[in-house]
Amino acid sequence: MRERIAQSADTGLIHQIIIGVILLNAVVIGLETSETVMDAAGPWLIMADRIFLAIFVLEAGLKLYALRPRGYFSDGWNLFDFAIVVASLIPTTGQFATLARLARILRVLRLVSAFPELRLVIQTLVRSIPSMGHVVLLMSIVFYIYGVAGFYLFHDIDPTHWRDLGISLLTLFRIVTLEDWTDVMYASLAVKPWAWVYYVSFVVLGTFVVINLFIAVVLNNLDEAKAERLEALRQIPSPENVLAELEKTQESLARLQLQLSAMSEKMPDAGVLDSTPTDKTQS
């Protein structure tokens, strides 16, 4: 019974129902932002939200029963879902009303744990954080050098964007996002025609090199995560798993034998029919 519930909650009917409930809950939360909709169907939406919460609590209870607390809380994604459900239980009235509403929005994040592909993407991003440290360090050095250089080169002609080091770094961040960076460049070009060298070189380093390094790190970790996932699927099962599968097979065979015995008892003429051709052959 526990195994069936666990399998259904992971990939079966319960899993599909929860995905549908999460999507409906997201729609209800979006509708609650409209005053017109709340005036027309506010109580119904509140009732639907409580029903969704009850379903989430029931799902968590079923998983706890099927996997047992030790097995349930050993999975990080189960902890993630459980934390969201617990946060959703905060009363929506009083001093915690705003926090409760924000917690309800987090239910939409359960779609991440519901799909294995999204789990793989999140795991890849988490794995990429240590590797990104060196890329962030390199980008910080580039930003600092260009920020100080931009202050000394342009603060007298464009104090709006190069007034001090902090503003200079904000301007460089605007440039690296390619958001109207040409406006900043033309303001400097009006006084210093060679200023384009500074801006173009920073765009090349900051955007096309450093940003691509981030992408390369993420893709590399994504390939490693996929390889580990395939390796886990190819692993030789442990003796305990083999014995468990053998026990299940024996139980299935025993049930099949009982069914065959019951069928033979209900069909007493089957033995006579089977013996007739043999008797004719012997004669």
What descriptive keywords fit this protein?
283 residues; mainly alpha; Four Helix Bundle (Hemerythrin (Met), subunit A); Helix Hairpins; 2 domains; 13 helices; elongated
Q: How does this model look, in words?
A:
The protein is an all-alpha fold. The protein has two domains: 2-114, Voltage-gated potassium channels. Chain C (Four Helix Bundle (Hemerythrin (Met), subunit A), Up-down Bundle), CATH 1.20.120; 119-234, Orthogonal Bundle (Helix Hairpins). The chain has 13 helices and no strands. The model is unreliable at 270-283 (pLDDT under 50).
Describe how the helices and strands are arranged.
Blueprint (H helix, E strand, L loop, with lengths): L1 H9 L2 H19 L3 H39 L2 H13 L8 H9 L4 H5 L1 H39 L4 H4 L2 H12 L4 H9 L5 H40 L4 H28 L3 H13 L1
Helix pairs in contact: 1-2, 1-3, 2-3, 3-4, 7-9, 7-11
